[in-house]
Amino acid sequence: MSKEVVFDLETEKSFDEVGGRGNVHLLGVTVVGVYDYNSDTYRVFEKEDFKALADFFKGASRIIGFNVRAFDVPVLAPHVDFNVFTLPLLDLMDDVEKSAGFRVSLDNLSKATIGSCKSGHGLDAIQWWREGRKDEVKKYCLQDVRLTRDLYEFGKKEGYVFFESRTTGARSKLPVSWKPAAAEDVLSVLQNGFLKRKTVAISYLSAAGASSTERLVDIYAINQRTFEGYCHLRSARRIFTIDGVTSAKITDNTYKIQEDVQQRLIS
């Protein structure tokens, strides 16, 4: 069964207090808020709960957030005992930035798309935590989780979200591709490409947790978990995981492998 999770976190310190944005790993974490699709519940994890958070994340098939690759994941990394960069992430910012050509805030997108906006700022949450107003921090964090979930649901269903121009106030549409690829469909496309000896165009998430990259691959061998082939992007032979492929499409390009050449020589 697939298990999608939406998350957001709040920090202990501001960028000014840790020497700038290059020290994101020093910001610290106060709380991590999550939404679990399987149980339709929200939950907040504090530091003493991070072992349970690790187990929770490890059991997820897809972890959704906003600007999590550049912020939440590197902030969280020093505080958990596993490699968060290998998690199956969907960062909504990736498609937004790709479509708009620049970064757009969650507040802007949520307001323009679903008519909801943030109730405060991350700096407010830092101050609240220091004042002992923990419940307010948790509520604020979960509100961001809810905004992220609702934005994701809209974009997944419609294939686009809206943002509002800062200069003109005009509302513009941004195409997004957030619908999960069915594992069976991806595997079927890859297998057909291999059988037909046709290059497959894939979107691939590497184990390093980087943004997805578009690749052309000539598949030489495939099983239920991995496939091996010539990666045109790297100009080298590579092994890929099936789970890392978010989309796959057979192209018109054909190729041959050593077995084909040997069979032709024998015949």
Q: How many domains comprise the coordinates? A: 2
Q: What is the element string, with H for helices and E for strands? A: EHEEHEHEHHHHEEHEEEEEH
Mean pLDDT: 90
Count of helical stretches: 9
Note the main sheet.
5 strands, mixed
The CATH topology of the largest domain turns out to be Nucleotidyltransferase, domain 5
- Outline type: globular
Low-confidence stretches: none
Q: What's the gyration radius in Å?
A: 21 Å
Task: Please give the order of strands in the largest beta sheet.
Answer: 3-2-1-4-5
InterPro entries: RNaseH-like_sf (IPR012337), RNaseH_sf (IPR036397), WYL_dom (IPR026881), YprB_RNase_H-like_dom (IPR038720)
Pfam family, one: WYL
Domain YprB ribonuclease H-like: 29-153
GO molecular function, one term: nucleic acid binding
Provide structural commentary.
With about 270 residues, the chain is an alpha+beta fold. It has two domains: about 5-175, Nucleotidyltransferase, domain 5 (2-Layer Sandwich); about 185-265, SH3 type barrels. The protein has helices at about 15-20, 50-60, 70-75, 90-100, 105-115, 120-130, 135-160, 185-195, 260-265, and strands at about 5-10, 30-35, 40-45, 60-65, 90, 160-165, 170-175, 200-205, 215-220, 225-230, 235-240, 245-255. A five-stranded mixed beta sheet has the order 3-2-1-4-5, with helices on both faces. A hairpin with a 3-residue loop joins strand 9 and strand 10. Helix 5 (about 105-115) crosses helix 7 and helix 6 runs antiparallel to helix 7 (about 135-160). It is globular. The relative contact order is 0.12.
